[in-house]
Protein: DNA polymerase I
Amino acid sequence: MSTPVSNDKPPIYLLDSMAFIFRAYHAMQRQRPMSTRTGIPTAATYVFVNMINKLRRDFSPVYLAAVYDLSGPVFRDERAKEMKSVKKFNIKTQEFEEIDYLGYKANRAEMPADLAQQLPYIRRALEAFRIPILSYEGFEADDVIGTLSCKLAELGHKVFVVSSDKDMMQLVNASVSILNPTKDNLVLNPAGVEGVLGVPPERVVDVMALRGDAIDNIPGAPGIGDKGSVELIQQFGTVEGALDRADEVKKKTYRESLQNNRENILLSKELVTIHTAVPIGFDLEAMRTQALDNAACRELFSELEFTTLLKELAPSVNNAPIAYTLKPSDEEIAALLADARTVGDDGAVKGLTLAVFEDARALAEESGADVAGEEEVEVEPPPAENMSLFGGAAEPVVVAAEPVVAGALQMGVTTSDAGAMVVSLDAEGLRQALEDAALPKHVHDLKAVLRVLAAQGIALAGVRDDVMLYSYLINPTHGSHTLADVTARFTQRAMTPVVKAKAPTAAEVANLLPEAANATQRLAHTLREQVETAGLKDIYETMDLPLVPVLLRMEQAGVRVDPEFLRSMSSRLGVDVDNLAERIYADSGHRFNINSPKQLGEVLFTKMDLPKPMKYGKGKVVSTAQDVLEELALSHPIAALVIEYRQLQKLKSTYLDALPQLADAEGRIHTTFNQVGTATGRLSSTNPNLQNIPVRTTLGREIRAAFIAAEGNLLMSADYSQIELRLMAHFSQDPLLLDAYRTGKDIHTLTAAEVFGVDPETMSKEVRGRAKAVNFGIVYGISPFGLAAQLGIEQKEAKTYIETYFDRYKGVRAFIDETLETVRRDQAVRTQFGRVRPIPDIQSRNPNMRGFAERTAVNTPLQGTAADLIKLAMIRLDAEITRRGLKSRMTLQVHDELLFDVVPEESDEMQMLVKHEMEHVAEFSVPIVAEVGVGQNWRDIK
Structure:
């Protein structure tokens, strides 16, 4: 009997470590696996650390300890040896079968290698959190937890066993509760245990003894499952009671199981019983929660690339910027504010601010770097030969600069809709430094820096390193390449958090600049070495870096639209949308918000009682996703109406209504091209996304008619023809594909003849269309299921098509097999030009993730090479257009297509120039073809 809990004594939390480690591992197996750039698996570690963080946040434990299992035999292994055989109930024959007993936990599979690899890191995490780790040889963690629970309860403490293991329920009493963080911090007291299991805590071992444990290979009573075990203990009180009165059991299976397995059932009870007298000592004060070891946490999180966790760490001396830092005085800040026309009433810097502080070295002798706490760190000035710039449209502070030449330069740039301006004590000196090509510079997001400086008439030159591009080249699969994220991933530092919802004050700018400059400086050297080591220097210098000013010029030029055309089309489409809505209301018998998935689901599946899908959306609401509606539409017309309604509504809101509002006074839309937004190497487009203008539907093509050239000019399009299939011929060296492209044969007609056995002379458009789907499907690793769905045929027929394709195009099969073999070895794939894409999921135990990784591995050399090819073409074209002094401009890139605003008298020259450069920018085994045409608008280009 435990001592009454004292209200004066804080509760103690005992963590069932391995239970949560396994839970974290298996939970992430259903998600996308996580790993570092070097391939270290990290998912279980990440989830476990986050669970510890959540526990600390939610409960602020005063005492906390983690209990671990040790490797090696435990006392249960010896006791289990007494069982030589056990009976198993055969459901089909309704008979008991005797089988050999293989031992305690014999059914447990070996720990997955990728989990075992993480255990040392999890242990390091606990040590960094200063959480004591408890264990005892010969006993399991459950026994250690049971013993400590009893001892601590006797001292008057409330004990929370942090676990998701049902076995722990036997420990619950007035002083001991179960806390399950994975169930929204569910706390089980004695009443809670009885509510969940149907018996009080003291009877849990009896229920467990009867039902057994397949994972731990505890046989229990064969034929008596979860329900039966509870019923028997509720009736007889204990296992012994049920065994002694087995003849009273009405159900034959239960009765015979009890009568014929007494010894094994009693031994099972012993095996499931948690021991509470392990001879383990403990130091209560050692369990007292301490502050994190920031240095150890930072080292671990940096090593494992836990960017978010790094950001959450408190600033420390180790995290302080150690650059040559100079902060302006209050008087200097006041002077800046007085001179800045774009400073708001709240004192926030709204525009672009550049500040030069002279005599910085003299001032620096009197000051050190300010860091968290009261400690001061003396720092040495960094080399003066480089200037560091920090840029990014999503960051409040976008440019920082380090000392240069004899003086010193500290510069800040902020961007906003208010515009940009320069405030400088020596503007001309600033310009000279920035435009000096002999002065090497480091930047983060060169395009953003070029944009804001160009607005001031400053032509930045001499940029050698862009750490954002470096980061992307090293691992394009990372979702973010902001300076803060790059710093966290590649160093042991986390930058000072910045609230992006508001513009920073001048004082905040002054505080952040040295840190940003220092981070960029350090990253430039570190990442340049990594890029060179990885063999990525050439692609950086010949492609990614020189593409930046090309993209900026395209953004500045913009693409022109006809706002009146869009408004007129929107008005017409609005009538169609309203008519569809009325038909949906009439068919359903209800008026509701069709755009609300929740309301739509209620109408379709509750009020109309249509067949519910086996799929749920967010919040466990029945899904109304496109695939669900498509299946429903086969037998219920209202679903087809909803699909059409959504399509028209999306076209109207996304394009017809939005684009006119984004156009400038000349009707031009200035999108932003992102170099680091995709894992494939392709460019992406945002604000707005102009790479997603529909082309496959009649209405989608109609929208393209709104894209026009400048007054009096022509719009020209240049589109690579079947580029990925041509690259497949190059990579696979398949004789049929090589011959087809070298002799100008139609590849889809060829495939139809080879795969379907159809005579090209009598071939219909439908058959050629099917062959086209097969050709492009193979490039994207399509499955029989996917091809069947796309063509509307049986899966068996689709499987035959794919098999026949590989039988005819043996080179393609060999290319795919060789690529997969290489990627399984390297866990990465390269494009023709050397761009690398990590594919860690190629080794995933999850078949869905592994399958996706395999498709990605095959497609990346094709899609990635195509992306690199058009980038090189853009660089060459931009340079040649400039060299020739042409007035025509490149305005848009949409994957394999380029758009140009062309002066009529330059039309012929531009068509010849663009076609030649695109087709000859690199050499391949087959001809690369660019189809070029001109027209009054994008839709009508021929």
